[in-house]
């Protein structure tokens, strides 16, 4: 097949504070690279950006290391409630589910909702949809996330968020971090899409709504697409994804839009990260948190952001 443009791909597995052991880091890198390789090959074979994003999100939801789907963190009452969204930049259509339980892949429901007149469903409605679509009931609880929750309960829920990835050493240290996954793709026809899926920030109140199922955390036009991770309330307050996307749509370069948006976020003491692509094929990431677990493919090679200095705020490959 003849490519009209070189596909680009960037994915993330959350943002947060340092990843302690190197073992954890190498395992995370491997997990991310496996997804990047498979999804990039899919884009090369002519898959649309939306299809690639959904499939990438599914693979990351299925990896128990990340806080989405299997391996989601528990909320304050010990239950898993997941949120996810998809935005297709070409159709400019956003769909999402908020606080859905007992499904393996929330992104599948979100994909279905792209073509529905009602495109964002919360807990009860999402459960009804899963029932209608005959999605089998699934329990995404893992032993590590249960241990993490028990430890937090013991400490009276003093952490603001759950661990960035489910690694035994991190559970023991009960280190505050983030989770969540995201995929942003530019396909061979020049179309952009972005998807984000999360178990939430962990230990939150019942009914708390994550940015991951809002445009604030996941937004695309035909010019740019962004997926965010980190403290959802900070992402909502900055309206981060549309802030970056609209700047690019108005003519700013992706690099400048990221630089400006992250400088403002830094000033406001926000704690988050984001990954982004533009229609010209620029790949970018930014963070105010210590680390961002992102990996990308630019058509020539794989790369990642796992071992960058803490003070590095943004990166852009044009
Ligand atoms: N943004 C997600 C939330 O606040 C959490 C995360 O990205 O780890 O629900």
From TrEMBL:
Keyword terms, alphabetized: Autocatalytic cleavage, Hydrolase, Protease
Site positions for Cleavage: 179-180
Entry superkingdom: Bacteria
Species assigned in the record: Halotia branconii CENA392
One MF term in the entry's GO annotations: hydrolase activity, acting on carbon-nitrogen (but not peptide) bonds, in linear amides
GO biological process, one term: proteolysis
Binding of substrate, residues: 208-211, 229-232
CDD domains: Asparaginase_2_like_3 (cd14949)
UniProt xrefs under PANTHER family: L-ASPARAGINASE (PTHR10188), N(4)-(BETA-N-ACETYLGLUCOSAMINYL)-L-ASPARAGINASE (PTHR10188:SF6)
Key word Kinase present: no
The UniProt record lists the keyword Protease: yes
Protein name: Isoaspartyl peptidase/L-asparaginase
